[in-house]
Amino acid sequence: MEAELDDEAKTIQFEVEVVKDGAIHKVIVDGKSGLVLQVALDDESKEGAEGHESENEAD
User: Fold this and answer.
1) Pairwise CA distance, residues 46 & 40, whole Å
2) Which residues are CB-contacts of 2 (< 8 A; sequence separation ≥ 6)?
3) Which candidate in 7, 12, 35, 49 could, as Cys together with 23 as Cys, close a disulfide (CB 3.0–4.6 Å)?
4) Global pTM?
5) What helix, strand, coil percent values describe the chain, rounded to 5?
6) Structural domains in the chain, sorted by start
């Protein structure tokens, strides 16, 4: 898991990486309100997540 302050945006935002079901997700959180602005599957975990899903389908 990793978190960092995003200073490229117009407002203060935190970018947090979390692991769910073996895949890494990037979560963007508004630094002032705490609202989740965006959740996306991290590019690095797409290949691993696809391989993991196909294993489950075979069972």
Assistant:
1) 11
2) 16, 17
3) 49
4) 0.60
5) 25, 45, 25
6) 2-58 (3.10.450)
Amino acid at 15: E
Closest alpha carbon to 27 in 19, 16, 41: 16
SS3 18: strand
Q: Which amino acid is at 55?
A: E
Residues 6+ apart with CB under 8 A from 40: 25, 26
Whole-number mean pLDDT of the chain? 76
CA separation for the pair 56, 42 (Å, rounded) = 21
